[in-house]
Amino acid sequence: MERDRKKLVEEVQKDVEKTEKARQFKPTLLSQTVFLGTLGVLFIIPVIIAAYLGKWLDEKLPGYAIHWTISLIILGVILGAINIYIFIRNKI
After folding, report:
1. Looking at residues 56-71, what average pLDDT do you find?
2. Total-model pTM
3. Among candidates 56, 54, 55, 50, which has minimal Cα distance to 76?
4. Do 55 and 39 touch, CB atoms closer than 8 A?
């Protein structure tokens, strides 16, 4: 019971600190640009890696045409979206 209470107090203190930081922080144009650029990079890197890996697999395995490329691009998009979700969740 006491442990749960301490844990709750710690979580509330963290939330209060985050709220105070958010009130004091005034984003500039540069910081917003960097944030959006980071989101773009976090999304596009898995897609590019997946596309190159898929193309390489399609060239190595006969009879597959572009199946690996398309499948891995879709997987890259999903991984990119997860990256952005995790980044935003940790940032806010």
Report:
1. 86
2. 0.69
3. 50
4. no
